[in-house]
Write the structure tokens for this entry.
Amino acid sequence: MRFEYLEPTTIEEAISILIQYGGKAKVIAGGTDLVMQMRNKAITPEYVVDITGIPGLDFISYDEQGLRIGALTTIRALETSAELRQRYPIISQVASKVSNNGVQYFDQEWLRKAQEIVKSKRG
């Protein structure tokens, strides 16, 4: 498993890298989902783009278009946000269940687990 590890420091730089390398590049934030897929050889990126050094990607906000969650927002932040609990309680509830499983960031693994929990609550 050989790949080039890239660490952009701005959103613009990250976008430029992703445009340049296209499907050969994968983004890593917390790494849970990506690392598991790479270990299982489900994906073999030539470039891994670490976005953890980009400031301003850890946010939860609301506007006229609705809820926005930044790419570096932790599951713990989703779990403990009072405003999120008030506006979107299912997200906080699912975050509290998922956070016990060692998932830190809002990634594909988190979404998969969240979907399972929501489906099980529906019956």
